[in-house]
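User: What would this chain look like folded?
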Amino acid sequence: MNFKLKILDRYIIKKFIGTYFFILLISICIIIIFDISEKLGDFVDKNAPLKEIVFSYYGNFVPYFMNMLSPLFVFITVIFFTTKLASHSEVIAVLAGGISFKKLIYPYFLSATIIAVMSMGLGLYVIPPANKTRLQFSETYLKNRYENSARNIHLQLSPGNYVHIESFSSFNNVAYKFTLETIEGHKILSRLQARSATWNESIQGWTMRDYTMRKQENGKEVFSRGNARDTIINLTVEDLNRRDNAVEAFNSKELNELIDTQKMRGDKKVIYSQIEKQTRLALPFSAFILTLIGVSVSSQKRRGGGMGMNIAIGLILSFTYILFLRFSQMFVHAGVLPPWIALWMPNVLYSIIALVLYRMAPK
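Assistant: Here's the prediction, encoded as structure tokens.
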């Protein structure tokens, strides 16, 4: 196959990329207008500075939503300008001129590659630090103080070291009925119990109140108690105060390290980290799948519905893809499927749909 770009290829790529960014710009402007109208009261009530609103929030809001809605924008783009080509009989002229349908799709896939690479780059390198700033703004001006409602928290801090917390107060960073155990095999080597443990910022550790300590020394049990004791362990107040969506601000290295730590601890919130990781990898591939579906659906000239019918079909398919992508996360939360299967399942299913529509498209 000759990979040299011809006039038709450059024309389609120019139309594809140009229309994509035009629709992207219009859509983002509309989303921002609706978002401002919804949050204006919060901005005024909490005296959010205009500079912070513009740069810290909306400056980092744009790449996040741009990437999240990229499948929708790609699909609408392909449907929109390919339907125009078909309605003007340009697709028929191209096929009649000896250019195969496969060669016609070639510039589409080059354009989809550009968008997929851009989406991957945004998801891995641009959006995480942008989300960090955006989420910090939201914590300050939009959301109420986070309250950890979890009870009976059981975590493994490291092999053989376990912590149990009956309840935790995010308001004053106090863990109640705190127990720290070191176990070897079936034998408890030490057990530290405290009525409460308060996070101590100065030592980056915990101050135990009204504690008792039992440990094995030279085959004998040693018992001690006291009013206060500072203890530094592999558990910080950030681990207990982390919102579920905080993983959006972690870069790839940090996210992988967090997943390893959460797996080792037996932290149930690891599924949020795994979903975030798989979403970042799976989402860019939607550009190829939805491009093939879009071209296959809209390349045929329609007498009745025309562009309106194609756009309607495109919107339905793109919205169902995004909905399925979100719905697949429920399989992870329910423990039905592992994250990598659940998050890649929409791509597999819609790849099959794309191939069927491609076979049905006029050649």
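The radius of gyration is 27 Å. If you want, I can go into more detail on any region.
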